[in-house]
Design a protein that fits this description.
Distance between the termini: 14 Å
Structural class: alpha/beta
Largest sheet: 6 strands, mixed
Number of helices: 9
Helix content: 25-40%
InterPro entries: CLCR (IPR051266), VWF_A (IPR002035), vWFA_dom_sf (IPR036465)
Strand content: 25-35%
Protein name: VWA domain-containing protein
Radius of gyration: 28 Å
Number of strands: 17
Keywords: Membrane, Signal, Transmembrane, Transmembrane helix
Length: 429
Amino acid sequence: MIISKRSAGAACALLAALTIGFLTPGAASADDGPGTAADTPTAKVDLVLDVSGSMSTRDIDGQTRMTAAKQAFDQVIDTVPSGVDLGIRTLGATYPGKSLKIGCKDTKQLYPVGPLDREEAKTAVGTLEPTGWTPIGPALLAAAKDLSGGDGSRRIVLISDGEDTCSPPDPCDVAREIAAKGVHLTVDTLGLVPDAKTQAQLSCIAEATGGTYTSVKHRAELSGRVGQLVHRAASATSTPVATNGTGDCSTAPELKPGLYSDREEFAQHRWYRVDVPAGQELRASVSVADDRPVNPDYGVLLRAVTVHGREIVRGQQEGSGRTDVISAGLRYPHPDTGTNSDGDTAPAETVCLEVSNSYSAPASSKTTPGLPVELAVNLVDAPHDASDAAAFGLGRGWWLLGTLIVVGFAAGIVWGWVSRWRVAIWRSN
């Protein structure tokens, strides 16, 4: 049998066109959303940079820590997205003396939080030289004031190469104080070639506010991570509420629709509870970030379970190699069975959400505090038809799969008939 490559290609193109034709109508444009960029509150980010004397150490890609930080800041400033008001605050930048009283007040606003003039900001950063003390606590308090006001997300990004030299106030206590005020402010910390004490203190600061800690040994890591955090502030739609999952469902915190943050130790299980009214569908997703070196094989599991321990549905994700975050999600519709003989509606069903991970830590990594966890919970109207509910992960995609099967079957019959006809013609000639 002779089969023309051109005809085979035409058949494949036809099938691809049919597939695209079915997929295209379901695509939504960016203009279909309910809001516009003008409706989004402006995010605020304050970069807090350690300019103490130890920043003159030359151990980052053959450069001093200060030089690497300046170059990284220049790259970040060039890529700050619209919708972000950026500010820069320093600590230890002006006083080189030995007076503890003076040195521990040495924090200043290098560039005010607001609309960004890139050249002006980079010029200000270029004037910095390693100088004084490391008053992290006072700098955090001042940065929190820099970010006051507004309805958008607020984020402090603290970059330091050493622990605080001015306690009291203890920086961890300051971070807890900020979090306790409920101002929805996140502090992310980065340690430049940190020792164990610096890593512990910066991790504590981040943990207290639901932020992340990252160790940095190269300039590219510094610019990449700071840029990522600035862009995350720009894309944030809501600020996570700190919660504390428990070891079993009976004592788990009750969650309402919203975004939550927690910490989970390696290979730990955390439980939460959600009441799902009749006629509503629970949609939940979880993301676990590896904010420190981890072993290459890992996974995250999100399960919905009844209060009696019966599994309802699960979502899971596994991976191998380098990653920053891994996520899983699930859907569970609670059907509306109507009213009973007394006219009462069906009660809400309590669903237990279990979050677990299979991360493991190499000997060089700390296992505490736990890994950052972000849990999103939403309740929407449940589907009226069984065909609308998620089934085997396809949901409404079943109709598309069925259509493609029928189209493929028909295309195969047509192609076979055409091939037989061409062979008959060839033989007759």
